[in-house]
Write a structure and sequence with these properties.
alpha+beta; Beta-Lactamase; 6-stranded antiparallel beta sheet; elongated; about 55% helix
Length: about 600
């Protein structure tokens, strides 16, 4: 297990929690004993006072006469009251004795350990309420202090006799012992007790923290490896997975999660590879060979066969890793097991013996214990089955196969749609270029020929396929702006007026605007706008010069001029080969890029 300071910090935190827990338990025990002891003292005190008053027959209003006329009797009474308290509490004992005149409800202080006089003592509303409540209940005690504090606790007792004409209440103030008193009086004992609690809590806490933190550290190590991308980490070999408590459940859950992640990532990677295969495949057969190979790899290079549905049977469209049979082998329905013949559109599990019961030979696939048949659909139309041979499949594997077969169907649909779109796209493009060329009988086929010549030059330059396709489209659409030019101008046999020439010169910019909103047409738009720019900067519409003119536009310029001068026009006949070579050579460095023209003359004209 790898050392990590965070794991040590976790162990330390858990140990400290146990230590704090031990201290809290000790403190709560102290509080409980303090509170219970205080309750016992109060109960004994109250019982003692009540018994004294009951057992000592007194005259009417004897308290009044004792403290007013015979103070010695009052002192003896208070000494007796003190005797009902433990010696430790007796030291901090203070009292007040109050008397209430029933005729006017006024309270008076009879005696006090603080030497108050009746004239100097002030009664506030809170005290009067407490005294009146004591007369109703017989006893009123302040709430106990639950935090071991050293505070004064007040006790009010109704000591009125049956025959008294006044009401009497005694207020006792007892200093309740707390932590401070313990620290002062039992310091050594408390220190020893605290050290023992601290050591014991630390030892026990460290032991239990290790029991808890070790499996957590193991799971953390495995989770870190999983998060870092190591999906091959094994959990089951660790003892954490064998625990019967929640940590064991957690470890097993992480193991299950890791398995699911591995499985799903593998499935996603396979699905992604199938998606990419659509772009690089030119036929259904090529696509299905790739799909079968990807599925075979995910399931340990097991045998996978794709059967395409045909009338009366199936055609072996693809297989992986390899098959000995002919790629064009036909399997008729009668050659297949009954399960496949009847329920081909369902996911089927077929035993090896059931598969052998059909007339299909074993040379197609190496049979294992189990064979699974998964239907393939294209736009909800059943188009074939995918057969995979394995010894066993989990529920998750079955779900994965369903997903991959669905993805294969989507791939077939995508490939079909791409081909249809490509056909439609090319047809629309061809129609558009022909509509441009049809504006003049003199330019019929011009765009096709320009695109063809530009293609040849692009191939000689070893340009990439994407750029070559864009140049081809640019050659087809370079004159699309002429759709806005009147046919009378295009077919005029004589010299154009300045106004007419201005209209002609506007067609590159118009073509650019026509194509402006078509995505991925940047190169085509460059060609459309700049194919009448000249190397020496005398062209239009932007007067670009030299390499300011985009390379694709320079290529199409050569192809455009070459076709224009070699074809008949209303105002002249097409050039001969010699005339063409002479004109092109003369315009080297003027209209044309010298390097491109040299390549064109060497590789195309002279060959």
């Amino acid at each position: 297990m790898k050392f990590r300071w965070r794991s040590k910090l976790l162990h330390l935190k858990q140990t400290m929690l146990f230590v704090v827990f031990g201290i809290i338990i000790s403190y709560v025990s102290f509080l409980s004993s303090t509170i219970l002891g205080g309750i016992k003292i109060l109960n004994e005190f109250q019982e003692g006072v009540e018994k004294f008053l009951k057992d000592s027959p007194m005259e009417k209003d004897w308290l009044y006469y004792s403290f007013i006329q015979s103070p010695d009797v009052g002192d003896m009474f208070m000494k007796k009251v003190r005797g009902f308290l433990p010696e430790q509490e007796n030291k901090d004992f203070q009292y007040h004795i109050f008397m209430k005149n029933r005729s006017n409800d006024e309270w008076t202080i009879l005696s006090s350990s603080y030497s108050y006089t009746r004239e100097s003592f002030a009664f506030d509303l809170h005290l009067q309420n407490d005294l009146n409540k004591t007369l109703e209940t017989g006893l009123k005690i302040d709430k106990a202090h639950f935090f071991g504090q050293e505070k004064t606790r007040k006790i009010l007792i109704d000591i009125t006799g049956i025959n008294d004409s006044y009401d009497y209440v005694i207020e006792l103030m007892i200093r309740q012992g707390g932590i401070i008193r313990v620290l002062k009086e039992d310091r050594d004992q408390l220190l020893v007790y605290s050290i023992m609690i601290l050591i014991l809590s630390t030892v026990i806490g460290s032991f239990f923290a290790s029991r808890l933190s070790k499996p957590i550290n193991i799971m953390t190590d495995m989770a870190i490896q999983l998060a870092s991308g190591n999906l091959e980490v094994e959990y089951k070999k660790h003892s954490a997975c064998n625990r019967l408590d929640d940590l064991g459940v957690l470890a097993q859950s992480i193991e299950t999660m890791a398995d699911n992640i591995r499985h799903r990532i593998a499935s996603m990677q396979t699905m992604n590879r199938i998606d990419r295969a659509v772009l690089s495949s030119v036929s259904r057969k090529e696509l299905m060979y790739k799909v079968s190979g990807y599925i075979s790899q995910q399931f340990g290079n097991t045998e996978v066969v794709v059967l395409e549905r045909i009338e009366g049977g199936y055609h072996i469209l693809a297989a992986a890793p390899k098959v000995k049979e002919s790629k064009n082998r036909i399997l008729w329905d009668k050659d297949l097991p009954e399960k496949i013949r009847v329920n081909a559109e369902e996911l089927l599990e077929i035993n090896k013996q059931d598969f052998l019961s059909g007339r299909i030979t074993c040379t197609i696939i190496k049979l294992k214990n189990k064979i699974f048949s998964i239907p393939l659909f294209q736009d909800e139309l059943f188009v074939g089955i995918l057969i995979i041979t394995v010894d066993s499949l989990s529920d998750q594997d079955r779900e994965t196969l369903r997903m991959l077969s669905d993805q294969a169907g989507v791939a077939l649909k995508s490939l079909h749609d791409m081909k249809q779109k490509d056909i439609l796209y090319k047809a629309l493009l061809q129609s558009l270029t022909r509509s441009v060329d049809a504006k003049s009988r003199w330019t019929a086929g011009h765009s096709d020929r320009v695109a063809e010549v530009a293609d040849i030059l692009a191939v000689e330059m070893n340009l990439d396929e994407k750029l070559k396709d864009a140049i081809h489209m640019g050659g087809l659409l370079h004159d699309i702006g002429k759709m806005g030019v009147p046919e009378a101008i295009l077919d005029k046999p004589g010299r154009l007026t300045d106004k007419e020439f201005t209209i002609i010169k506007s067609h590159p910019a118009k073509g650019y605007e026509i194509l402006r909103d078509i995505p991925d047409f940047d190169v085509v738009r460059q060609i459309t706008r700049s194919h009448h720019e000249r190397w020496d900067g005398s062209g239009y519409p932007d007067g670009l010069k030299g390499e300011e003119i985009p390379l694709p536009a320079r290529i199409v310029t050569i192809a455009d001029v070459f076709d224009a001068i070699t074809e008949n026009r209303p105002y002249r006949k097409g050039f001969t080969i010699d005339e063409t070579l002479k004109f092109l050579t003369e315009q080297r460095g003027k209209i044309f890029d010298p390097t491109l023209l040299d390549l064109f003359l060497e590789k195309i004209i002279k060959t």
